[in-house]
Structures are given as structure tokens and as C-alpha cells.
Amino acid sequence: MRIVVPAGGIGGARFLRGLQAALGVGAEPTGTDPAITVIGNTGDDITLFGLRICPDLDTVMYTLGGGINEEQGWGRAAESFTVKEELAAYGMQPTWFGLGDRDTATHIVRAQMMAAGYPLSAVTAALCDRWRPGVRLLPMTDDRVETHVVVDDEPGGRRAIHFQEWWIRYRAALPAREITGIGAEDAAPAPGVLEAIDEADAVLLPPSNPVVSIGSVLAVPGIREALERTTVVGVSPIIGDAPVRGMADACLKAIGVETSAQAVAEHYGPALLDGWLVDKADEHTHVDGVAVRSLPLYMSDPEATAAIARAALDLAAQLKGQPS
Ligand code: GDP
Ligand code: CA
């Protein structure tokens, strides 16, 4: 069984843990070919203090590798912030990014390898040698793509800020006029991405942010087209017209999509989506050309999350063979 999962950070990583449980896979000995390939969003990546930071790749790596701060959902467990405090004491900007000491070591390794000329995909593989996430973790692209958000600026003007600044510093409270992936148009899928999709038995879209996580992956030329050729089942990140946690509604609003399970499925569209899982609260959902099933979609514990993954796998198996 080969499953491909385009994923963001927290929502993606939690779902992946459930998928591993559903498939009975996890940390595997070196040399084995993992059943799950993750295509990680890199649109959130940012360079700070000379370090390249890849929040979504790291969240997946730490979560599946057992190093995540479970309560927070991002960053390392047992983290301290001495480096951050020292940088602030030098007056270094920005101060709004939560850079932990343990986490910083990851970014130093990455910065050093990238300065030596290694592509992000090779760096990610090297970092995963330590964490053994039990999945093949590929960045969506080795090229630099950065999501920027266009916000209002005084007087009557507009400016683009990095997605992280909008999300973390402003908590997505500044109305977003536009969300754009700078560099996306010229990016190429990372080595192995298109092959993994073409060889997959199914592609599952986890409940990641549909705009800035899954949307960024889909914006890399070639990836959406490859997904349209295969069986894709998505898990709605919206339950009862609300994002379960986080601020996904602010992103949807920026691109003119209503915050509902139905609108997100219509936004992905029937060419991409074959199946769509919605919560019981949204069982009325109907999307032309997409098979909709309803079940409890809260990833409240590992068992509940595994049940969602199992339902996605079952629906994909059912739909496979039908024209996609
Ligand atoms: P990322 O997009 O994977 O980086 O992770 P985020 O945590 O930023 O976004 C995940 C999205 O999934 C959120 O915007 C929520 O709308 C949604 N979400 C979070 N928790 C759950 C859950 O338990 N069940 C479902 N169905 N969706 C969730
Ligand atoms: Ca399809």
C-alpha cells in the first residue's frame, strides 16, 4: 500500500499519526521503503537570523519522531528560549517568532547544509535520519517559495508581509486582501514528488489549512495535475462552519471561499477531489462529482484520528478504479 499525503504542520502531522496507526506502520529500520510519502508545505518557510526555518516540515518530523511539544502542537518538547532572549537583548528583530533553543539546532544544521549547496530535500532527509518519522518526508519543492499576505497600509495603501508575520505577530487579525505564494509559479516539484503521486494507491488530504498549506502544495506547477490523475480523498478542516482550531477562516475569507466543509470541497473541485470526509454536523454536504461521507472528524485522540484515517483509506479503496 502506498499512500501520499500533502501536508501542512499541526493538522497534517496529527492526521499522519492516525494514518500510521491505521496502516500499522511507524518507525521502520533503515533501508525500508515507507508506505507513506508526505509532501510537506514549504510556503511557510522563512529566513530569520541567517537560519532557514521550515515550520511545517519540522512539525511533521518532530510529531512523528516523538520530539514535538504535544500541548502546543509545534516546537520541541522540554524547550527553552535562551537564544531568543539573548537575540532580543541585542535588539535583533523580529522578536515575535518563537524560536526555541532545541529547535534552533535543527535550523543551524539546515542552514549549514544549505550553505554547502545541499537542496532542501537532501537536508530534510538528513534531519529525518535522526528523527525517524516513519514516513518519507519530501518538501513540495527545493525552490524557494514564500507565502505573503497583502494587508492594508496607511494611508490607503497596501503592503505584503510574510505569512509568518501575519499569522504569528498579527494573529491573522489584519484583513488579508490577497494571499500569494511568491516564487510558486517558477517552482518545480522536489525530486520524488511526482513519482510518489503517480505510484500511489491513494492520496489523502489531511485537515490542513486549505489555503496556505494544501493550497501552497497545489500551487507548485505539476503537482495538481498529477493529483488529478489519481484517487484523492480529503478530510474537511471545517466542522459546522468553523475551523476547529486556528484561524483558517481568515485565509479562506482572503480568497473568497466560505468557511464550510462544502465550500472547501468546491474550492478544491471535483477534478482534484474524488472523495470528501465531512463531520456528522455537515452530513447535508453535497458536492457535484465528489463522493461525500460523514463521520466524527475531531482528531481528539489517537483512536479517533486513526478512525478518520481508516475511513479515508476505505473511501479511496472504494473509489479507486472508478474514473477519477
Ligand atoms: P496545518 O495546515 O496542517 O499546518 O495545520 P493547522 O493546524 O494550521 O491547520 C489545520 C486546520 O485543520 C485548521 O485550520 C483547522 O481548520 C483544522 N483542524 C484542526 N484540528 C482539527 C480536527 O481535529 N479535525 C478536523 N477535521 N480539522 C481540524
Ligand atoms: Ca482525481
From TrEMBL:
Its EC number is 2.7.8.28. The keyword Transferase applies. It comes from the Bacteria. The gene is cofD. It comes from Streptomonospora litoralis. This is 2-phospho-L-lactate transferase. Keywords: Magnesium, Transferase. Pfam families: CofD (PF01933). GO terms for molecular function: LPPG:FO 2-phospho-L-lactate transferase activity; magnesium ion binding. PANTHER family: 2-PHOSPHO-L-LACTATE TRANSFERASE. It is an enzyme of class 2 (transferase). InterPro entries: CofD, CofD-like_dom_sf, FbiA/CofD.
